[in-house]
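call fold(seq) -> tokens
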Amino acid sequence: MTEDYTFAKNNKLVYDYLIERSSKKEPQGEYELLNILRLTVLILLIPALIPAQESEKDSELITRDISGYRCVGRAANTDKKEALRLAKADALNSIFNKTGKDKLFRDLFISSWPEYISVEESKVAREDGLYMAEVKVFVDQNAMILTEDSYRMEAENLLNGAEEKIDEAEQLLKEAENSEANLRMSEAFILYGQARVRLREVGELLRFLGDVSVKSTKGTTLSTVLSLAGALELRVSSGLVRLEALAKESEKDRVLAELDESFDLIIEEFKKLEETVESNSEIEPFYDLPKTQLNTILIELNGSLEKEGTIKMRLLFLQSRVPEEKILLKDRIDIALTDIETLGIKLEKMKEEVELEIAEPRLKRQEKARRKAERRRKIKETASYIFLHKPAQALTFHYTLPFEWDGESGIARGNESNWWIRAEGAFDMGFWIRGLLEHDEIDLDGGHNASLRSEIGIGFFRKTLLGAGFGWEWIKKVNDEKSRELKEKSLKFFLGRVNKERNRVDWLLSFKYRIPLVWDEIIAPYHMNMSVEWLLRAADILLVEAAISTGCYPLLPLTDTDQLTDHLAYLFSWKAAIALRVPNPFTWGFFYRGYRQGHARGGDLGELSYRGRWGCFIEYSF
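ret:
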């Protein structure tokens, strides 16, 4: 497969030239001038090489509409699947070259939006023992636009890193030139070598970047960064040439010549290994390759690592043979050892990536990460809704905590359990409805009443709300025994004010009357079963409630209304509560409830006892 040179390749051209230049042994004078001219021409040619070259094939095969780009790619191979893959890659390269996108943009796009690349047509023909593949690929324009932000951010980070490396190289170069001027040759050689390493790191950072419109945080363009790196590399190369010339003059004995020759042979092997590694890095990202090819790459990487270790051992052996007074050669070997160690680290990293890709492909890992991020997002949204949503108070859950304090002794667990669920709403046509399901318990002297009951209320409003409702008991227990016969019914009347903006009641006054089960004999305390409740919602944060009630409750699970006369407990109670809504869906409140109660025998209340308690409750609203 042939591939047009993008600007990333142009970066590599300058980079390879600079590295090759620093390792060559050329005489001074006319060759030095020629090298300076070469590098200057390369730097001046960079802007001209940046735009992707549009071939006749591209202009014929690439089409564009509102949704994206289409292109036909072709490739030939002895393996059918490989031919199809190469044809697809050929089409993608043509699209990215046509749109002026560099390799950095391509890698970001493919890794972030693989689902936006689709194969619309594919053809394979057999010819002369080869599979001739033709694949039509579509790339979504929206995904390319979405990639721009991450590309700009990544490119800016690369330029920032390159600027930092250039600053470090410039500082090291100044120190090297100062050491050279003061005849501290060994120190100068080390500093020149360190500066060269920094400049090589600049090339590594920018080798896939090709968009001249991107800038660093300081506003520096790609061309400026490369020009600075080229100028600094020229000074480094010149300094190393001068020092090497001095070293040749001072180290002419036979042993040193042999060592120097051995060193050159080792460095030549190192350069070949480095070129092999560089060619492997050209096929990145690895997730775009089939597993068979990944296994082949892994074998090559293992071989390269073995060769790297061999070269390193030979350098160490050579270093041990260098006489102590031959400082410059020792320093050159130190720099070569640094380079081979850097290459070894790069090889190990590539090997780890290939092994990871073989074990679990990157696209699969990305899909897992995407699903995990989606789950986290949904959990976060759900938690945010549960704890922070602003309720209309259309549905409210209320629970009274089972603890009480009588003001004298400590906090104790109470015998009463109270909870209710209330649904209510006010509608634009002036209609209001309310429903309630409540479990209520009352602890009396001589009996314990518990009931599960429902209420429904309907009202109409303009400014003032007027309504009525009806309630009934589903389950009634006295002393934990069900009372099947004497289940009570109740009437309820409402007066309030509706907030039309919030579609809710801002305040509500309720009057409730429990209908007596028997009218044969009038028992005043029993027939006066009534209560008044008042509710105030101040803004969205404060809730105030007050209630007063009077009436009688059975002390036994009565089955006959004749038993009402001797088995009733009279109860007069009042309640005041205040609560705050923090955060929005939750309401936290406390209340005081007082009781006066006695045994109503034949309508005679007798002596009434008093008790009161403090309690807390919590509400949650939608």
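DSSP finds 13 helices and 19 strands in the chain.
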